[in-house]
Fold this protein.
Amino acid sequence: MNKILPLFGLLAMLALGSCQNNSPSSTEKQILTVSILPQKTVLEEIAGDKFVVNVLIPEDGNHETYEPTARQMAETGKSVAYFKLGHLDFEINWLDKVQMNYPGMKFFDTSEGLELIQGEEIHHGDHVHAGGIDPHIWLSVSAMRIQAGNMLRGLISIDPGNKAYYEANYAGFESSLDSLDQMIQEKISSSAVKSFFIYHPSLGYFARDYGLEQIAIEQEGKEPSPAYMKELIDLAKQKNITTIFVSSQFSKQSALTIAGQLNASVEEFNPVAPDWKANMLGIASKIAGSSN
């Protein structure tokens, strides 16, 4: 019952916003909206100074379970376009409502053309990733290259008059991806690491890019069973794993408890840090440094 009133409030504000004219005046920049901060950073590199980029999920928000406020959703209604990741639970749960109430807003799925990591239905406590799709597509240089290309095409469709400008910005960004990929490759290949433990499995695309094995501690969104704990302890010894990675959006307590049983340390990282390139390099350094 406690979720019914906020939902009614949200729908009311969406309906009110949909009746308003969200077209900017000739002196105002048009607004684009994205789900998370890394998307904002990349989209701004390509869009340059032509648009204002709004982001829905704050840095400390859990991108797995976040519920936007009615005010945020109403503000989103002022956007000319939404660039979605495509498979976040938050997007699946909320964007249909936005699309219904703002039919003039364009939606671009930046995961289009990506080879998605998919398995059985993944249960994470009180929510489910439909079809088992790993939604963490921004934590990969190769996947971000495709996402940026989708952003470019979206920008050109909205503003074809500045096509050359966006293409030049994209070319610069793509070149920086080549350098970033090489630096990460060198860090990983020069280390002895082949596998890593992670509490919540958010680095699947990163692991795929660099030939690593991601081993999740979490079991269907819950702490591991005693049987799985024994398996993890044996794996830690076999693979010489001494570090557990944990996202800063999740509680560290469970990871610390498990680390004690595995005789391992806990390394925290922020998957949605706004400086995407620096964060990707930082994650590589932490994984490379976790090997003995």
The beta strands are 30-34, 51-55, 81-84, 106-109, 122-124, 127-129, 195-198, 213-216, 243-247, 265-269. Residues 193 and 291 are 5 Å apart (CA to CA).
